[in-house]
Design a protein that fits this description.
Immunoglobulin-like; eight-stranded mixed beta sheet
Amino acid sequence: MPMNAIDITGNWESDVLPADRLQTREPEVRQGQTTVFRQRLQVPAGIHALELVYWPDQDSRLGKAIEEKFDGFDGLRMNGSSVRLAFQRMEGAREGYRALVQLEEVRDSQRELQLELTLCASRPLHTRLIGDSGRQNECGGVYQALPPLSDGQLAIVRGIPFHLSELNEFEIDDLLKDSPGDRGSLHPWKDGMTLPCHGAKVRTAHFLGMIHSIDIANGSWFSPKGDHGFSHFVGDKAGEIAIRWTDGEETVVPLVFGFNIWYSRAWDMFWHWWMYDQYIGHLDERMFSGREDGREIVEEAVALVDGIRAMGSLSSNARFVFSVDLGGREVASISLKGDPLLYGHPVVSAVTLETAELCSELPTLPDFGSVKSARKTVSLEQIEAGGWQDRVERLQKLLYTYVDELPVLDEPLVPDGYFGPRYRFEGNPDSVYAATFLYRNGPECAAYIADNGTDCSSSTARQAIPHYIYGMGIWFGFDPVFGSLDNWFKLYRERSPGELPGISEAWARGVGELLREAMAFGYDKFVRSYVDWLDNALFTEANPPHWNRIVGRSWYRTYEVEVGGMLEKGVRENDGHGICMWGRYMVWHGMGRPADWNERHFTATEAAVDWIEWQLANDHIRPGVRKDVLFTESECAHGAYDIYSSYNCLHGSKLSIRMAEQLGRSALAERWKQLYERLRQGILDHLVDPSEDGPIWHTEEDCYWQDHAHKLVPIQLATEGDTYTPLEDWASGDSMDRTYLEISQNSYRHLMRSENYNCLRMFGYGQGMMTQSALLLDRMADAEKFLHLMLTHTYLPHLEGWTAPEGIIVHRSGKYYLPVNGYMGQDSHVADSTKAVRLLLGIDDNDPGHLRLVPRYPAAWTKMSISEYPVVTGQTRQSISYVYVRGERGSDNEHTFSFELQDSADRISIRLGPYPPDAQIDRAYWNGSEIPFDCVDSGDSRWVWARNVSGKSGVIRIVGVKPIEEG
């Protein structure tokens, strides 16, 4: 076979590159440090050149690997002599530099060439040997190719020659079922491929590639609910290699993730991790939080050796080598097949047969690589015996959490140093998990609130995982802003406002939700300084004043567009803007609605509403359409219109009207009311879709949030300033309230058509929002199922225990799961999931003059108590404790609810339940005296109201719960 150019990048060796296994460690090479790469070649006769290519986009900074010596790099030695390299800029769209070294002509049959390359990098440069002749393999074994259909590309990888159709390096593509194509398969993939072997007597078959064409770990948010086709789990079958022998028999070698095929760019992202165009840094020492046996488990399980390892974090179709001992048997053909459960297919870019004797029908490969031990050969007997399965299972245990291994808790777990509300729930395991979840994540939400923003990632979690579709179960140690949750408790006690800085960044979408949770749980020490920072950002980071997608990040200040003579600056993240608006309201309300605070912050309140008014006044210019709804540039709308973005601003405007009225700004409040009604009607006119369930709220089909739980935002935001019982209150409201309620109920039915309760891929935007919606619509059977999945998949032993990441991917078997999207949790997700569990408590203090207690615990829970929980009554912030017991007393089924406040409240209403829809309530008692009560059918249950009692403490007892007698 003639040799014009042969890639030898995969033939370099170094001290950290093991010869016979997968590399699972790669120490950082800092400035001034170097790595020495070596290889020996038996160069055939002819004229040759050595080509080295440097790609800056694969380095951590320009020129680092070659010590910034583009014109005179002296890191190459050939047969002991130093060679200076001059790197010339290559033509093309991608910036690259090429050095070419002409070799002395080889006049003998062959000559040994010893190469040594010293780089300030952990991986070699792309290297090719260019020449004009080749030779036959003259050693005892013969390397023969199952050739591609084209001229292809020759490569030596770990001493083994391969003939590829092409050498393909790539980033991860968008998740499209018709993308990314073959990735350079040996033959075009047509539901597999069959490669004739012509009866070759094969000692060993070497397969190059051994990745998946969709080289990711999971579909994350970006695939539809219930779609497992993009999720790759260790132990899952990706396809098979079928070996047909000349005697007609067939042997099947399964392709199993974690055994002989890998995915998601394996370890590379940890050594050169780019996220959002920022170099995160070298993370090798942090892998598995320093747990050394993690690497050993990987090395033992995976029957692959590294192939071509590009600098940076690119993958390639020459990434790994899988070698199978075929015992010298005669092979008729080798077929490769995929698995119909997965999108895409296994990638095999080349197959080299090491034959016992020459097979004339197969081309012979030039053999001049010197590394003969770079193999981890597996025998067919080992595969058939299944011994590899134990090692793969050990790897599964390392990466995943098994549902049946959740710890059994008799008492909720309380973090070290904890202070705040107390919880105790009984009745089944979920009840204890729920209390544990609140103990961890109530303070976790508050730990995002410092003197300024702490970014979207957890400020306390010490472990993290790669984000989004990279998430494969590998975790690493991290140094969060506040060190740990117990250290945050300490800092919170010791520091005063102005003494607890964050990092001056926060995603607007998470700001309001975290402020809401911090206030709800009573961690309000730093909310004032935080809101000061937030309001300052409103005026300094965008024009007209509004909150950008990421408050504090200068990146978004550069967005500029001319609109009607005004230079608009910043991003139209209207959902985040509206969330900041109502989040500030919840701070004001939680403090007891102080007029002086309202006055001091009212300039920002007014500017925030003005931004909404300005957009509607100028929408004929940008985006050029009159709609009376808000054009939004964010994840939920993607430069379009949707219910989530417009409704958050609608809700923020309504609550701002109340703040204006408190200060006597009557004219302004009247103007805002007109704006509110205009946007409210605009939503009905433009953001309602037809469906088989009736009109439903519009969300963008291609938005990131594929569960579309944000379609129910009107229900979810009812608790922010209005009511915990929207079914009752909106049904008795004006015609617009009733219309919004009807469309929201239709939307819920539409989302629940599949009766799929697993929205965990989007922990807050999915599971959290759907749980909130089920609870607030009193769909208690649904809520219990949503809660069960949330609480039994929140145990993450490698991520601080009972934490709330950005998502959970559950294996299609339901047996195990892993966190994804979860770079240590994420603001909106922890807030929305925490709120979902908090709603169980039922503390509705939205009306300062009327405290309503509406607990919504699943019917199977028997005793629930809280104490030291904050509540607003009048203009006072105090605390409440209560105990709710469901159980038998004599022959009657009895519910007892007792509460105690710090100070008396003038008006209290209590709703108990859920009861079966056919239940009959005999009597209700208040402090031992019988009182009138109301039975309300709401959602799928019956509820009992004891209305308008008062006092500092009291006991409600409901007795005689019986099915309604027919007739």
